[in-house]
Structures are given as structure tokens and as C-alpha cells.
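User: Please fill in residues for this 567-position structure.
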């Protein structure tokens, strides 16, 4: 049986009197156990912490709560205490109310509750964080009898559903920050290549749509780097705001553990991990191969336009090319002079009547050829100026390297990045069978296709407890912190990748070491912030001891104190 409950605040004299009596009762109970304010003492309390302690509690302020009655909502201040044994923060008055509701103990509290006006706080309430508004209503079918005076509970005491309103709220916040961070980080990462590719448009006359295609092809590689950074930024910004505005405190004092609060962040990290894995394993090899093909085609079609008539073309390293007349329609030219200084021992001077431009298909170091006819080749020695040779030829092929811009663009494409998982495994097996050291870089590339996606999940796990611990994590602070952690992560990754590619350490260890490091730090932060014994004490102690030198590497671990309200 469902009953529509009133949503208005109960401002009747009876409700106000009830709230005052509850506040007075709280003060009396806390003063009996902890002493009056300003004169703290500790004696055995009429309540117990979940660790079993009945002494050693300290006041930790009060938090606004919304009690649900049959006539409306009543606002009270619910005081919380901290246990010195396990550092758990909870509301003893809520525990006493629940005990008294079942007639357990203590009798004094039950007597005071029976003296209050009839009231009931229905379980199953859900509050929008920070708003103080009741959003959902639920009345237990078993409670169809008239309400008892001691039938009291606190909002959010019932366990949340697998996907609650709070989860959707946090996921929306993370999605907005993630989109902003992804656009920013990707733009910054692509800026260097965009400046280089702009030279193709300005100086080489390449069509804009071709350059845009090239940027689109290199985008998947950039996304595998920027998605983990954006996930970290989204989690830090969202949970930092929730913590700074006190929403995390309300949720924690209402019965939600840190691990339950982290569930949306972990879910967000899992989705980002799957997306990054799909890009890294399936999309990136094809896009890298397509970008290499496009660069080669652009190199072939636009190499001719880089030659100008009547001037020395010096953009080709070690060559100076002079052309009297150039026919761009068919790629032929007349009257050519070439000065070739690429040899360390000789200098070549080529003079020919006519020729044409040649292109050859090949790898990233594709060469452009000039085929000249009816000319002379003059060779002079650099070491011996008196040594000179003169050769006549009917046809002479001269290989011309790519321009710097195109060569750099082509050089960025590594062979391993063009292979999918099956091709990488097959190539590694062949090289390892022959004992070839070239298998090491391919092993690094294979493990990177999995380590970068897993980094999304690890960074999301470290972001939530870190943001809650910092408390005042604005978007600017979150951005700076996410960049700092990302730089630390990618420095470790670059170092491990370099050592693994040279065979100084195992390639798998070099690639996975950053994830292992950040992961253990994340576990330490969760244990330090959560303070919940879901792991054996010996295991928690071993993890903390193992990671003490890594924890000191983060300045926040040195200065930040545990949250005074969260368990």
C-alpha cells in the first residue's frame, strides 16, 4: 500500500516543540557521555561504535537533517561524534532512536521518546545532495497501523538501490567535466601537430580537407592519452565539489560509506576503460595506417608544387634545385641545375636540359626522384680540391628526400602502432623465435594497448578519495591536480617504455609499473579515508607499509588530514 505523503515543511507549534525536545535530548545524552561543551570528559556511553568501543568519543559538530513526519518535514540538527579507536564518524542519537524503536535500550531514551508528540520518519527517503528536498516517498506496507511515538528513523538509512538518484546525479556531473577536459586536453595535445600540418596548407598548397582528414586519423592515438586524464579530472572536479559543499558529509552521516559513494566513479572508469580499449586495440591501428597512406599520397601529389621556377629551392635537406621552366600538368621541366651536398666526401653539380619528377612507393622514408636527361655530372672532392670528374649522361635518376615537414609527419608513425593485436602477437612470436631484439619494442606496444585503458579505472579510483580528502577542490584545483598526477603517470610510463624497449627491464614491467604504482596509492588513499575494516587488519598494514615511500611522493599525503566527518 502506497500513501502520498505531504511535501511541505511542518511549521506547527507541535512540530517546533518536537524539534526543540529532540535537540535538548541530544544535548543531554551527549553531555552525560562526553561532558558539557568546554569541559570534555569521556565515560562509558549508552551507545556503542561498530568496532565495539563504548568510550573515547569526541564531538564533531552537527549536520542539518530532514525528519519526515505524518504532517510534514521537520528540520533538526543531528550531532555526530568520532570514535578514537576506528575513527568512524556517526550519529549516536540515530542509533539510540533505532534501539528505542525496537524497545531494546535504554529505557531513559524510550521514556523521552514516548513523551514526544506522535511522529514517524518513513524509511526510503532520498535527498538531492545539498538541496534538502525529499525527492522520493516510500511507505512500508507493513506499517498500516497508526504510527507509534517511537517509530522513528533517519533519511537515507535504507540501503540505496543499485542505480539510485544520487548515482545519476554524480554521473551527470562527471560527464560534463569529462567532456570539457577531453576537449581541452585533446586540443592541447594536437596543437603541436596542427601547427606542423598548417605548413602543408600555407606553404605546400595542400587542400584543407586533406589536412583535416589527417588530423582525424591521428585523433585516436591522442584519445588514448587524453581519456585517462579527462576521467581523473571529472572525478576530482565532481567529488571535490560534493565535498566542498558538504554533500559528502550529509551522505556519509546518513549511512553511505565511502565505497558506496565511489561506485559512480568506478562505473565511469569502467565505461572509459572499455571505450579506450576499443580505440587502442581496434581503431588506432587502422587510423595510423590510414594516416601513413594519406601522408604518402599527399607527399606524392604535392611534392611537385614545392618546386618554384627561377629560384633555388633549398627546402630539401642537402640539395639546392633550380628550374628554368616547370610544367605542373605533366610534371616535366626544362633547364635544371642541382647542387648536391649530401655526401661527406664529394660535392655533385648536375646540369641537364630537361627532366621529370618521379615518385616511388615505399615505407615512411619514401623518396622523390628526379629523372634528368641530356646533361652533365660534375664531381669535386671535398678533401682534395684538385680532384675533379666530369660525366656526360643521357638519363640520370636523382633521389630527393622528403621535405622536413612531411618527413617529420611520416616519421611519427611507428610500425608497431599500425598493427592490431593479432599482428603484434604473430610478429613478436617470429622475432622471439629468432632471438631478435626488435621484439622488445613490439612487446611494449602490445602491453600499452591494455595498460592505458586500465589507467582510466585506476585514476578514477584514486580521484574520489583524494578529492574528498582535499575538501576545497574547485575546478581550477582539480585541473591542476589532474595534470600533475597525469604528468607523474606519463613520466613513469615513458621511463618504463624506454627501458623496456631497450631490454633493460621486462617490457611488461616497464609498461604496467605506472598502473601498479598509482593503483597501490589509490588503495592506500581509500583505506586511509574510508577507515572501514572490509580488509583484514594485517593486509591493510602490509599495504600501508609497502606503499609508504610512494605515499610520500604525493604532497597531499604529507599535509592533508583525514576528513573530520567522513568514515
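Assistant: Residues filled in for all 567 positions:
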Amino acid at each position: 500500500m502506497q500513501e502520498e505523503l505531504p511535501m511541505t515543511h511542518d511549521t506547527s507549534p507541535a512540530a517546533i516543540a518536537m524539534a526543540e525536545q529532540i535537540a535538548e535530548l541530544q544535548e543531554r545524552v551527549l553531555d552525560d557521555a562526553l561532558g558539557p561543551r568546554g569541559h570534555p570528559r569521556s565515560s562509558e556511553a549508552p551507545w556503542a561504535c561498530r568496532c565495539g568501543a563504548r568510550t573515547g568519543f569526541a564531538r564533531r559538530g552537527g549536520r542539518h537533517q530532514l525528519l519526515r513526519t505524518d504532517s510534514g518535514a521537520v528540520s533538526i540538527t543531528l550531532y555526530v561524534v568520532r570514535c578514537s579507536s576506528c575513527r568512524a564518524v556517526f550519529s549516536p542519537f540515530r542509533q539510540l532512536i533505532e534501539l528505542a524503536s525496537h524497545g531494546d535500550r535504554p529505557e531513559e531514551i524510550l521514556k523521552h521518546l514516548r513523551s514526544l508528540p506522535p511522529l514517524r520518519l518513513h524509511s526510503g527517503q532520498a535527498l538531492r545532495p545539498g538541496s534538502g528536498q525529499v525527492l522520493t516517498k516510500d511507505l512500508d506496507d507493513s506499517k498500516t497501523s497508526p504510527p507509534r511515538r517511537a517509530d522513528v528513523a533517519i533519511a537515507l538509512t535504507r540501503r540505496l538501490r543499485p542505480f539510485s538518484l544520487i548515482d545519476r546525479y554524480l554521473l551527470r556531473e562527471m560527464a560534463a567535466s569529462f567532456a570539457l577536459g577531453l576537449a581541452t586536453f585533446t586540443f592541447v595535445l594536437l596543437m603541436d601537430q596542427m601547427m606542423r600540418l598548417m605548413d602543408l596548407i600555407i606553404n605546400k598548397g595542400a587542400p584543407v580537407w586533406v589536412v583535416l582528414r589527417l588530423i582525424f586519423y591521428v585523433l585516436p592515438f591522442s584519445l588514448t592519452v587524453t581519456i585517462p586524464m579527462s576521467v581523473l579530472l571529472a572525478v576530482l572536479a565532481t567529488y571535490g565539489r560534493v565535498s566542498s559543499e558538504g554533500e559528502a558529509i550529509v551522505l556519509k552521516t546518513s549511512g553511505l560509506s565511502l565505497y558506496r559513494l565511489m561506485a559512480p566513479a568506478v562505473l565511469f572508469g569502467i565505461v572509459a576503460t572499455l571505450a579506450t580499449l576499443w580505440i587502442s586495440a581496434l581503431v588506432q591501428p587502422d587510423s595510423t595506417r590510414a594516416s601513413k597512406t594519406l601522408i604518402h599520397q599527399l607527399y606524392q601529389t604535392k611534392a611537385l608544387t614545392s618546386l618554384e621556377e627561377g629560384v633555388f629551392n633549398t627546402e630539401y635537406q642537402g640539395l639546392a634545385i633550380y628550374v628554368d621552366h616547370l610544367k605542373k600538368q605533366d610534371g616535366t621541366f626544362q633547364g635544371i641545375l642541382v647542387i648536391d651536398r649530401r655526401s661527406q666526401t664529394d660535392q655533385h653539380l648536375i646540369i641537364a636540359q630537361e627532366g621529370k619528377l618521379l615518385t616511388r612507393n615505399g615505407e615512411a622514408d619514401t623518396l622523390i626522384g628526379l629523372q634528368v636527361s641530356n646533361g652533365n655530372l660534375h664531381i669535386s672532392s671535398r678533401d682534395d680540391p684538385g680532384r675533379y670528374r666530369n660525366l656526360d649522361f643521357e638519363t640520370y635518376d636523382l633521389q630527393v628526400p622528403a621535405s622536413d615537414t612531411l618527413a617529420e609527419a611520416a616519421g611519427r608513425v611507428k610500425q608497431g602502432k599500425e598493427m592490431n593485436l593479432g599482428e603484434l602477437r604473430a610478429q613478436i612470436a617470429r622475432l622471439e623465435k629468432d632471438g631478435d631484439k626488435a621484439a622488445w619494442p613490439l612487446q611494449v606496444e602490445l602491453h600499452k594497448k591494455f595498460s592505458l585503458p586500465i589507467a582510466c579505472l585506476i585514476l578514477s579510483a584514486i580521484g574520489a578519495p583524494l578529492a574528498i580528502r582535499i575538501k576545497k577542490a574547485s575546478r581550477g584545483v582539480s585541473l591542476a591536480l589532474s595534470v600533475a598526477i597525469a604528468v607523474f603517470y606519463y613520466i613513469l610510463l615513458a621511463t618504463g617504455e624506454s627501458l623496456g624497449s631497450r631490454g633493460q627491464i621486462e617490457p611488461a614491467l616497464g609498461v604496467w609499473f605506472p598502473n601498479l604504482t598509482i593503483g597501490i596509492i589509490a588503495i592506500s588513499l581509500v583505506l586511509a579515508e574510508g577507515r572501514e575494516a572490509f580488509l583484514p587488519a594485517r593486509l591493510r598494514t602490509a599495504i600501508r607499509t609497502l606503499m609508504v615511500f610512494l605515499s610520500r611522493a604525493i604532497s597531499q599525503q604529507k599535509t592533508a588530514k583525514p576528513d573530520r566527518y567522513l568514515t
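For context: Residues 263-302 form the longest helix (40 residues).
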